[in-house]
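User: Teach me something about this protein's shape.
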Amino acid sequence: MRPALTDLRARLRDCCGVLVDSNVLLDIATSDPDWSIRFGRALAECAEDGTLIINPIIYAEVSIRYTSIGALVAALAPNLYQREPLPWGAGFLAGKSFLLYRRRGGSRTSPLPDFYIGAHGAIRRLALLHPRCGPLSRLFSEIGDPRSRRARDVTRRMPRSPDSLVLATRLRPGGTV
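Assistant: First, the predicted structure itself:
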Protein backbone atom coordinates (compact mmCIF):
# COMPACT_ATOMS: atom_id res chain seq x y z
CA MET A 1 0.00 0.00 0.00
CA ARG A 2 1.29 3.44 -0.95
CA PRO A 3 1.98 5.71 2.05
CA ALA A 4 -0.35 8.67 2.51
CA LEU A 5 2.65 10.96 3.02
CA THR A 6 5.88 10.44 1.11
CA ASP A 7 9.28 10.70 2.81
CA LEU A 8 7.61 11.18 6.17
CA ARG A 9 10.56 10.30 8.41
CA ALA A 10 12.87 12.66 6.57
CA ARG A 11 10.26 15.42 6.60
CA LEU A 12 9.73 15.08 10.36
CA ARG A 13 13.41 14.89 11.26
CA ASP A 14 13.74 18.56 12.22
CA CYS A 15 10.24 18.92 13.65
CA CYS A 16 9.16 18.72 17.28
CA GLY A 17 5.85 17.01 16.51
CA VAL A 18 2.85 17.18 14.18
CA LEU A 19 0.14 19.77 14.73
CA VAL A 20 -3.05 18.16 13.40
CA ASP A 21 -5.54 20.58 11.84
CA SER A 22 -9.20 20.30 12.81
CA ASN A 23 -10.26 19.67 9.19
CA VAL A 24 -8.32 16.40 9.19
CA LEU A 25 -9.82 15.35 12.53
CA LEU A 26 -13.36 16.31 11.52
CA ASP A 27 -13.19 14.44 8.20
CA ILE A 28 -12.07 11.32 10.08
CA ALA A 29 -14.75 11.75 12.77
CA THR A 30 -17.54 12.20 10.23
CA SER A 31 -16.31 9.25 8.14
CA ASP A 32 -16.20 11.50 5.11
CA PRO A 33 -16.29 9.06 2.18
CA ASP A 34 -13.72 11.00 0.16
CA TRP A 35 -11.22 11.81 2.87
CA SER A 36 -11.51 9.81 6.09
CA ILE A 37 -9.53 6.77 4.94
CA ARG A 38 -6.66 8.81 3.49
CA PHE A 39 -6.54 11.18 6.45
CA GLY A 40 -6.72 8.25 8.87
CA ARG A 41 -3.73 6.62 7.19
CA ALA A 42 -1.79 9.90 7.21
CA LEU A 43 -2.58 10.43 10.88
CA ALA A 44 -1.47 6.87 11.75
CA GLU A 45 1.77 7.36 9.80
CA CYS A 46 2.48 10.62 11.61
CA ALA A 47 1.75 9.01 14.98
CA GLU A 48 4.33 6.29 14.25
CA ASP A 49 7.08 8.84 13.60
CA GLY A 50 6.15 11.79 15.78
CA THR A 51 3.95 13.24 18.50
CA LEU A 52 0.45 14.31 17.44
CA ILE A 53 -0.40 17.73 18.87
CA ILE A 54 -3.54 19.85 19.14
CA ASN A 55 -4.08 23.29 20.63
CA PRO A 56 -7.14 25.04 22.12
CA ILE A 57 -8.25 26.39 18.74
CA ILE A 58 -8.17 22.97 17.11
CA TYR A 59 -9.95 21.54 20.17
CA ALA A 60 -12.69 24.19 19.87
CA GLU A 61 -13.14 23.64 16.14
CA VAL A 62 -13.46 19.87 16.58
CA SER A 63 -15.84 20.27 19.54
CA ILE A 64 -18.70 21.38 17.28
CA ARG A 65 -19.03 17.77 16.09
CA TYR A 66 -19.70 16.40 19.59
CA THR A 67 -22.65 16.79 21.94
CA SER A 68 -20.73 16.27 25.17
CA ILE A 69 -17.26 17.00 26.45
CA GLY A 70 -16.90 13.31 27.32
CA ALA A 71 -17.38 12.33 23.69
CA LEU A 72 -14.90 15.00 22.61
CA VAL A 73 -12.30 13.85 25.14
CA ALA A 74 -12.77 10.26 23.93
CA ALA A 75 -12.26 11.34 20.32
CA LEU A 76 -9.21 13.45 21.15
CA ALA A 77 -7.77 11.10 23.74
CA PRO A 78 -4.92 12.72 25.68
CA ASN A 79 -2.81 9.59 25.24
CA LEU A 80 -3.02 10.09 21.44
CA TYR A 81 -2.99 13.88 21.13
CA GLN A 82 -0.66 16.00 23.20
CA ARG A 83 -2.33 19.25 24.18
CA GLU A 84 -0.27 22.41 23.88
CA PRO A 85 -1.22 25.97 24.73
CA LEU A 86 -0.72 28.65 22.13
CA PRO A 87 2.71 30.22 22.67
CA TRP A 88 2.68 33.98 23.20
CA GLY A 89 5.03 34.37 20.24
CA ALA A 90 2.43 32.68 18.05
CA GLY A 91 0.01 35.46 18.91
CA PHE A 92 2.54 38.01 17.74
CA LEU A 93 3.27 36.12 14.51
CA ALA A 94 -0.44 35.56 13.83
CA GLY A 95 -1.00 39.29 14.29
CA LYS A 96 1.77 40.16 11.83
CA SER A 97 0.36 37.68 9.30
CA PHE A 98 -3.10 39.17 9.77
CA LEU A 99 -1.71 42.68 9.26
CA LEU A 100 -0.18 41.55 5.97
CA TYR A 101 -3.51 40.00 4.98
CA ARG A 102 -5.31 43.30 5.68
CA ARG A 103 -2.71 45.31 3.76
CA ARG A 104 -3.31 43.04 0.79
CA GLY A 105 -7.01 43.89 0.88
CA GLY A 106 -8.37 41.15 3.15
CA SER A 107 -11.80 42.02 4.50
CA ARG A 108 -11.90 40.04 7.75
CA THR A 109 -11.79 42.19 10.86
CA SER A 110 -10.01 39.75 13.18
CA PRO A 111 -7.35 37.07 12.68
CA LEU A 112 -8.59 33.73 11.40
CA PRO A 113 -7.96 30.51 13.35
CA ASP A 114 -5.58 29.35 10.61
CA PHE A 115 -3.30 32.29 11.41
CA TYR A 116 -2.96 31.10 15.02
CA ILE A 117 -2.62 27.43 14.07
CA GLY A 118 0.08 28.18 11.51
CA ALA A 119 1.88 30.52 13.90
CA HIS A 120 1.83 27.86 16.63
CA GLY A 121 3.46 25.43 14.21
CA ALA A 122 6.02 28.01 13.14
CA ILE A 123 7.03 29.06 16.65
CA ARG A 124 7.32 25.49 18.00
CA ARG A 125 8.87 23.95 14.86
CA LEU A 126 5.90 21.63 14.34
CA ALA A 127 4.89 20.00 11.11
CA LEU A 128 1.31 20.87 10.17
CA LEU A 129 -1.01 18.16 8.91
CA HIS A 130 -3.64 20.00 6.91
CA PRO A 131 -5.97 18.89 4.08
CA ARG A 132 -5.36 21.81 1.74
CA CYS A 133 -2.36 23.36 0.11
CA GLY A 134 -3.89 26.73 0.94
CA PRO A 135 -3.41 29.07 3.87
CA LEU A 136 -1.30 27.15 6.36
CA SER A 137 1.43 26.48 3.85
CA ARG A 138 1.60 30.19 3.03
CA LEU A 139 0.60 32.02 6.20
CA PHE A 140 3.82 33.83 6.88
CA SER A 141 4.43 34.87 3.35
CA GLU A 142 6.43 38.06 3.75
CA ILE A 143 7.50 37.69 7.34
CA GLY A 144 10.71 35.83 6.64
CA ASP A 145 9.47 32.71 4.88
CA PRO A 146 11.15 32.33 1.48
CA ARG A 147 8.04 30.64 0.10
CA SER A 148 6.45 34.09 -0.03
CA ARG A 149 7.66 34.66 -3.56
CA ARG A 150 5.31 31.92 -4.73
CA ALA A 151 2.36 32.76 -2.49
CA ARG A 152 -0.62 34.33 -4.21
CA ASP A 153 -2.76 35.30 -1.26
CA VAL A 154 -2.32 34.60 2.42
CA THR A 155 -5.87 33.36 2.91
CA ARG A 156 -6.78 31.81 -0.42
CA ARG A 157 -8.06 28.26 -0.02
CA MET A 158 -7.10 25.88 -2.74
CA PRO A 159 -9.65 23.26 -3.76
CA ARG A 160 -9.11 19.79 -2.40
CA SER A 161 -7.73 17.13 -4.63
CA PRO A 162 -6.58 13.60 -3.80
CA ASP A 163 -3.00 14.90 -3.57
CA SER A 164 -3.75 17.99 -1.52
CA LEU A 165 -3.02 16.59 1.92
CA VAL A 166 -0.22 18.77 3.18
CA LEU A 167 2.40 18.03 5.75
CA ALA A 168 4.08 21.40 5.95
CA THR A 169 7.41 21.11 7.68
CA ARG A 170 9.81 23.80 8.78
CA LEU A 171 7.08 26.38 8.58
CA ARG A 172 8.76 29.08 10.62
CA PRO A 173 9.97 32.60 10.14
CA GLY A 174 13.24 32.52 8.31
CA GLY A 175 12.95 28.76 7.73
CA THR A 176 13.23 26.89 4.51
CA VAL A 177 10.87 24.54 2.80
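Now, about its shape. The CA atoms of residues 3 and 42 lie 8 Å apart. The beta strands are 18-20, 52-54, 81-83, 127-130, 166-168. If you'd like, I can walk through any region in more detail.
User: That's plenty for now, thanks!
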